[in-house]
Amino acid sequence: MKKFSVIILLVLIATGIFFWKVDSDINSPVDKTDDAQVSFQIKKGTPPKEITENLEEEGLIPSSFSLYLYIKYEGLGKSIIAGRFLLDKTMTPKEIVEIISDPASSEFIITIQEGLTIKDIDEKLVELQLTEPNDFVTAVKNFDGWEYYSFLDEEALSELEIPLEGYLYPDTYFLDPVDFQSDDLIYLTLDNFEQKTEELLPEIKNHTTHEIITMASIIENEVFGAEDRKLVSGILWKRLASGWTLGADATLLYITDDREIDSEDLELDSPYNTRKNLGLPPGPISNPSVESIEAAMYPTENDYWFYLTTLDIGEVIYANSNEEHNVNKAKHL
After folding, report:
1. E strand or H helix that includes residue 217
2. What's the pLDDT at 181?
3. Contacts from 50-58 at CB under 8 Å and sequence distance 24+?
4. Nearest Cα to 297, choosing from 207, 225, 221, 220?
5. What does CATH list as the number for 19-105?
6. How far apart are CA 333 and CA 325, in angstroms?
7. Domain boundaries of the chain, sorted by first residue
8. Is the pTM for the entire model greater than 0.70?
């Protein structure tokens, strides 16, 4: 009985020390004097255990184990939200949990990849539960800030179904989930476009800005890599100058609901069907990167007329003649 009592006592002491340590960890800041702000991001779907580990790696909490235990015991995991938060080492882990559970303290993260369309961006905002379907598309259609952006051709863009396609610069943006309006993201992306291209666009020669951005959007969706983009740019501009059709599948994919091309699509009487109609499509088919804009402005002259991208590793195969191109298609596609 004595030994048993000693064991029980030791267990109680150990348990007490354990809970004291956990309580101390979650109520004590890492450094009461270091109030330098740290931008901490939580991606949608990140589990609490990974969040606490990331907080410890950033030096914002003393123990990921103690904080995870607290979150799990108090059932706080579901209240933590995705976004970007400004934290510092003077905050206790308890305070940090309160902040990362408060929508008013969060900025949602949206990444617009190169080559996405405005409809794609609309879908991303819906996934983040920031908007209802088509809210963003509608806001773009109702855009009235033309006078603030000299690079926008209001006359040409107003004729398009979705006016600002091509000019919402692809990047990562931080959004306020509490007061978010679609116009907020529209102006953020346009401001970013202006900043990224302010030294580049004045160098455009022989084409309008609208034509360059339209070509850049096609190149963005046709091939990858700086070298291939400039080579394909050379081919596409050469086709236009020689009275050929552009023949770019990406322009037709822009108007197909399933993002695939079949025999019926090839017969569509649409200005976006550049296999059938001469010239550039009426406007951009995606939002291109500055690299694709540069490729459109500075094409690499070459002797090729045809190209394809292999299905396995995305290698671009070039050809000088249609016969050679057909051989490449049979071999690689």
Report:
1. helix 209-222
2. 93
3. 51/80, 51/100, 55/87, 55/93, 55/96, 58/87
4. 207
5. 3.30.1490.480
6. 11
7. 19-105, 113-197, 203-332
8. yes
